[in-house]
Design a protein that fits this description.
- The structure is a single chain.
- Helix 3 packs across helix 4 and helix 3 crosses helix 8.
- The protein is 32% helix and 15% strand.
- The chain is an alpha+beta fold and 273 residues long.
């Protein structure tokens, strides 16, 4: 399991005119809602949801090396896979694509295919899609998806700094984790969709919901995530409406190098239907 190394760092304000692209258009909140509705019509049936944010909100929360080179008011969306993604998107994907012949994680291949549909839907619009697994040449993540999800108000990113009575050894590294208000920990942040020439100065900021009510609950969440993430218990820190199926838990609970036999089984079952 890869564990996020995201952290909230320096605020850099000098971004208002950064890399403003020719042909930039100022849009209204209603137009943002219309764009979100179109995005939802493309990805919802495959088990995804999306939430808008402005690039400036993200850039002010991360170190300069993680800044996205767009104007503060540039419109973007964070893409989230819900528990239904596995059966709605991944299993059908395996029936169509011989993913084992490609030197890339099959889930990553599936995410590329499904999020690419957004560019087809908005073919006349300049869009950049950054996936959670993409790295820069020096192996740095291109996007800190937990921060993006938090500032979009889609999820709550709980970190050590949220705890005033810190119970850990000062030398211990404590990784943060996000919770979804409906799915708890049974979801994944898959990347961001940037409309590089659309800006919405009036877009209101949605604060993430405070899902956990006490500091003790936050400590328990961080302990479960850092000390025994493999038992899935951090995902159930709150009651949820939906969680991963047993097949999905088996898949993600299996080491990536050992998933070939599972993929072959899913392909066989799908092809025999």
């Amino acid at each position: 399991m890869s564990v996020s190394t995201e952290t909230v760092l320096e605020k850099i304000p000098e971004l208002d005119t950064m890399n403003e692209e020719p042909g930039t258009k100022i849009i209204t909140q209603k137009e943002v809602r219309d764009i979100k509705d179109r995005l939802t019509s493309v990805i919802d049936s495959c088990g995804f949801e999306c939430h808008p944010f402005k690039i400036g909100w993200y850039n002010e929360q991360v170190a300069r090396c993680f800044h996205l080179p767009y104007h503060n008011d540039t419109l973007a969306f964070v893409a989230i896979s819900t528990p239904g993604m596995f059966e709605k998107a991944f299993i059908p994907f395996l029936a169509k694509v011989d993913c084992l012949k490609i030197n890339q994680d099959p889930i990553d291949q599936c995410m590329i295919q499904h999020l690419s549909a957004i560019k087809r839907e908005f073919s006349s619009t300049s869009i950049e899609i950054i996936h959670d697994f993409e790295l820069t040449p020096n192996k740095r993540p291109k996007i800190l998806v937990q921060t993006a999800g938090h500032i979009a108000g889609a999820v709550r990113f709980y970190q050590r700094k949220d705890v005033t009575s810190d119970p850990w050894d000062p030398k211990k590294k404590v990784f943060g984790v996000c919770l979804h208000p409906i799915y708890g920990g049974w979801f994944a942040l898959r990347g961001v969709v940037i409309f590089t020439r659309l800006q919405c100065p009036e877009l209101p900021r949605q604060q993430p919901r405070e899902i956990l009510k006490t500091e003790e609950e936050v400590v328990e969440l961080l302990r479960r995530y850092n000390d025994r993430w493999h038992d899935w218990s951090f995902r159930d820190i709150i009651p949820v409406q939906e969680k991963y199926s047993e097949e999905q838990k088996e898949y993600f609970g299996t080491r990536p190098e050992d998933r070939k036999i599972l993929i072959e089984r899913y392909q066989s079952l799908k092809n025999n239907i």
